[in-house]
Specification:
The protein is built from 9 helices and 7 strands. With 233 residues, the chain is of the alpha/beta class. The protein folds into 2 domains: 106 residues, D-Maltodextrin-Binding Protein, domain 2 (3-Layer(aba) Sandwich), CATH 3.40.190; 96 residues, 3-Layer(aba) Sandwich (D-Maltodextrin-Binding Protein, domain 2), CATH 3.40.190.10. Strands 1, 2, 3, 4, 5, 6 and 7 form a 7-stranded mixed sheet that branches. α4 links the parallel β3 and β4. The longest helix is centred in the C-terminal third of the chain and has 22 residues. It comes from plant metagenome. InterPro entries: BUG, Bug_dom1.
Length: 233
């Protein structure tokens, strides 16, 4: 199973990946999409996306990520460009230290996956301002979308899916896709994925649907990497 970094982003960040993703792998099935959520400190003065935008006009804001080239980093860069905002990227080694510095007020904002944010949100250490999907996320139904805040181009979700080596017989690809989709219909598994922030409509689907998702994501984030000059350590 792969996720956004190794399926759609890393090929634009690393010069020497030992395999060609589109040539050496074939899609089997999407498992789930988990949106990102724009977070600020629970103790801070910002209660809306508009608050952050106004603050960035007074002085540059810092945005945390769980590392260079991560989806949260690239989403921040995308918002910086499309929103013409003055944002400075501060990379961390993982979501936990980024969340700790955000809650302590040492950085201004953080695009984190809903999964990584839930415990800090529930404890009040951080505050959610918007989710990065076209529709509100079931895990955070009271939180508006970035589109509602006026930024319809800010859509991002961590993608989880199953791939196989190129040359896998088509009959096996079809069977695996069927078995995965059958498993994803189990109430307990669906509930677990939804509790982790997954979008219900993203659970499973055809081989062709997953292939289309991967194509769109590679095109989008490849352009963001090129435009932002994002690199990895």
């Amino acid at each position: 199973m792969g996720e956004s970094s190794n399926l759609t982003v890393n090929q634009f960040l690393y010069k020497n990946i030992p395999f060609a993703i589109e040539q050496d792998l074939v899609p089997i099935s999407l498992i789930a999409k988990v949106p990102l959520v724009l977070l600020v400190s629970g103790k801070g003065p910002h209660h809306s996306v508009a608050d952050l935008v106004q603050a960035s006009k007074r002085k540059p804001l810092t945005f945390a990520s769980s590392g260079n080239g991560t989806l949260g980093h690239l989403t921040g860069e995308l918002w910086k460009k499309t929103g013409e905002l003055d944002l400075l990227h501060i990379p961390y080694r993982g979501a936990a230290p980024a969340m700790a510095d955000l809650s302590g007020g040492h950085v201004d904002l953080f695009f984190a996956s809903i999964t990584a944010a839930l415990s800090s949100l529930q404890s009040g250490l951080v505050r959610a301002l918007a989710v990065t999907t076209a529709e509100r996320a079931p895990a955070l139904p009271d939180i508006p979308t970035m589109a509602e805040a006026g930024y319809k181009d800010i859509e991002a979700a961590v993608i989880f899916g199953v791939v196989a080596p190129a040359g896998t017989p088509q009959a096996l690809v079809t069977r695996l896709n069927h078995e995965i989709n059958t498993a994803l219909q189990q109430t307990s598994l669906r509930r677990s994925l939804l509790d982790l922030g997954a979008i219900p409509e993203s659970l499973g689907g055809s081989v062709e649907t997953f292939a289309g998702v991967l194509r769109e994501e590679r095109l989008k984030w490849g352009e963001v990497v090129q435009a932002s000059g994002a690199t990895v350590d």
